[in-house]
Design goal:
about 110 residues, HIT family, subunit A, 5 strands, binds guanosine-5'-monophosphate, alpha+beta, binds zinc ion
Length: about 110
């Protein structure tokens, strides 16, 4: 996806503050953090949104979810964290490359 900003971040064409990377996923700081810790976890494969996941993505999405506690712990979020996946215009999704928001620490917002 040449016009996808998150694909460009993965490719290094747009700078990002990288937290973690492996063969399947890329993790970086949100440019407009809504809490003291605000990470985005994205698959390296371009998948636009949650409701486009298929059976073949089962191990990928499991990998993303299973990484969350480890990423939260590395950020010092000992008392817990919040995860959000916005899906489609009705869910307030702005970037159409699947991502999990991981938020925690002070200034954690309530749901709007
Ligand atoms: P969405 O509303 O799609 O769930 O969230 C998209 C998120 O991506 C927003 O929190 C926004 O701040 C973040 N974002 C958008 N463009 C960039 C960017 O170029 N770099 C980074 N690091 N985050 C971005
Ligand atoms: Zn993409």
């Amino acid at each position: 996806m040449t016009d996808c900003i998150f694909c460009k971040i993965i490719a290094g064409e747009i700078p990002s503050s990288k937290i973690y990377e492996d063969e399947l996923i890329y993790v970086f700081n949100d440019i407009n953090p809504k809490a003291d810790v605000h990470l985005l976890i994205i698959p390296k494969q371009h998948i636009a949104q949650l409701d486009q996941l298929q059976q073949q993505h089962q191990s990928l999405i499991a990998h993303m979810i299973l990484k969350l506690p480890q990423l939260a712990a590395a950020q010092g979020l000992d008392s817990g964290f919040r995860t959000i996946i916005n899906t489609g215009p009705g869910g307030g999704q702005e970037v159409y490359h699947l991502h999990i928001h991981l938020l925690g620490g002070n200034n954690l917002p309530g749901f709007q």
